[in-house]
Specification:
The protein folds into two domains: 179 residues, Periplasmic binding protein-like II (D-Maltodextrin-Binding Protein, domain 2); 208 residues, D-Maltodextrin-Binding Protein, domain 2. The strands form three sheets. A six-stranded mixed beta sheet has the order 2-1-3-11-4-12. The chain is α/β, with parallel strands linked by helices and 419 residues long. It is built from 16 helices and twelve strands. Helix 1 links the parallel strand 1 and strand 2. The N terminus is likely disordered. The protein is globular and about 65 Å long. Helix content is 40%, strand content 13%. Keywords: Signal, Sugar transport, Transport. This is Multiple sugar transport system substrate-binding protein. InterPro entries: SBP. Belongs to the bacterial solute-binding protein 1 family.
Length: 419
């Protein structure tokens, strides 16, 4: 379904460019988004209005679409591209005519490309994943940074059993995991280990997709994590119901010591815990191979039906410029909305002093983006439901569950005409 004239109704050049971003209102990230918009206004003369929404972001976009009143600009996850493009919400972006587009990393452009090969966004931010962990705890238990999954599991077990915070109570866990099903978090978390073990959710054969989640490498990764939940019991209690908002707090409260996550919380944890207490290490490759962790980020989406098409393009061009990228990075302070810059002229080391950022940057070239199916969202959600179930029910057989998931993904791919 294509929604004609579904942008901000009646919006003209005298009205503010309506920008939505998926961040918590009044958060540091929302304030950075406002700085970006203010700098754009100063440079272009175009007035802006920034709306930060975190909970039920996609649902609220659906409501605006039903009213034919979409915002002009949306800054949102790369994985949402297929979902939004499939509903006719996005304008196509001419990669060649976007000023500064030739300076953007080619890998980031791939995350702005739909299954039909066309581009429907301007890349804005990229990220890989790494292990943020409690350095003080690791030193307390006398262990080295993990280089293998076996060492990673052993460190998590030590964090669980050896009282790393020294309070005499059994109140710490190794892993903190957002293992709930909301927005597909269980799948999102597991994907980095699936990719790090040479697995995938789907196989792409010249644009035709088949499930791969029940292949040995993927099953091995999900089983490794089930073992941490069920055998080692080294995962924070309640993880199977948690999203990232709760999991961030679990880590900050000292209830767990190893968090496989993106770089967007690094500055927050440095501020809340202290630079001397945390460290960043690469995700070890699994026993069956690589290449690396999940790769993702955010795009600037130019929403369909806007009466301000020229201003939409101007904002996208400013956001991907070196100036826009540096504002979004926010140096080492909390609130970065550009995690790793997609503009190749921006020097990460010149903007950020925390050495943890380099770990994420070094991991990015091997990061794996989700497959370019027409709509990734239902695939992530179905995967999250299945993976969450085997972590929550320790009697579940992982291979059987992944076979069942593969059957569901086959049906979904057929529905998307992508199989």
């Amino acid at each position: 379904m294509t929604l004609g004239a579904c942008g901000s109704s009646g919006a003209g050049s005298d009205e503010a460019l309506d920008i939505w971003i998926r961040q918590a209102p009044d958060s540091d990230s929302a304030k950075t988004a406002q700085k970006l918009a203010d700098a754009f206004t100063k440079a272009s003369g175009v007035k802006t209005k920034v709306t930060a929404i975190f909970d039920d972001f996609e649902t609220k976009l659906q409501q605006q679409a039903a009213q034919k009143n979409l915002p002009d600009i949306v800054i949102n996850d790369t994985a949402q591209l297929g979902n939004m493009q499939g509903q006719g919400w996005l304008r196509e972006v001419d990669k060649a005519s976007l000023a500064g587009g030739d300076k953007l990393a080619e890998g980031a452009w791939k995350a702005a490309q739909a299954g039909n090969g066309k581009y429907y966004a301007a890349p804005f931010s990229a990220q890989s994943f790494a292990l943020i962990m409690r350095k003080d705890w690791r030193e307390k238990v006398g262990m080295q940074p993990p280089k293998t999954w076996e060492e990673l599991a052993a460190l998590a077990k030590a964090f669980t059993d050896k009282d790393p915070d020294g309070n005499g109570q059994a109140d710490t866990a190794g892993f903190v995991i957002p293992a709930g099903t909301k927005r597909g978090y269980a799948s999102w978390y597991a994907s980095s280990l699936i990719y790090a073990n040479g697995g995938d959710f789907l196989t792409n054969n010249a644009g035709k997709f088949t499930p791969a989640v029940n292949q040995p490498n993927a099953v091995e990764a999900v089983k490794f994590l089930q073992d941490q939940f069920c055998t080692a019991k080294s995962v924070n209690p309640g993880a199977v119901s948690n999203d990232t908002t709760v999991t961030h707090e679990v880590f900050e409260k000292g209830q767990g010591g190893i968090y496989l996550v993106g770089p967007y919380v690094l500055a927050r944890f440095v501020k809340s815990l202290g630079a001397d207490k945390i460290e960043v290490h690469p995700v070890p490759k699994g026993p069956s191979g690589g290449p690396g962790t999940l790769g993702e980020g955010e795009n600037v989406y130019l929403m369909a039906g806007s009466a301000q098409e020229d201003n939409q393009k101007k904002f996208a061009e400013f956001a991907v410029s070196a100036e826009g990228q540096r504002i979004g990075m926010n140096k080492d302070a909390p609130g970065a909305i550009v995690r790793l810059p997609v503009n190749t002229t921006v020097n990460l080391a010149a903007e950020r002093q925390d050495p943890g950022w380099k770990v994420f940057a070094d991991a990015y070239p091997d990061a794996v983006y989700s497959q370019p199916v027409p709509n990734w969202a239902p695939i992530r959600q179905a995967s999250a439901d299945a993976i969450n179930a085997v972590w929550a029910d320790c009697s579940s057989d992982v291979k059987t569950a992944m076979d069942g998931l593969a059957t569901k993904l086959t049906t979904e791919l057929q529905n998307q005409k992508a199989s």
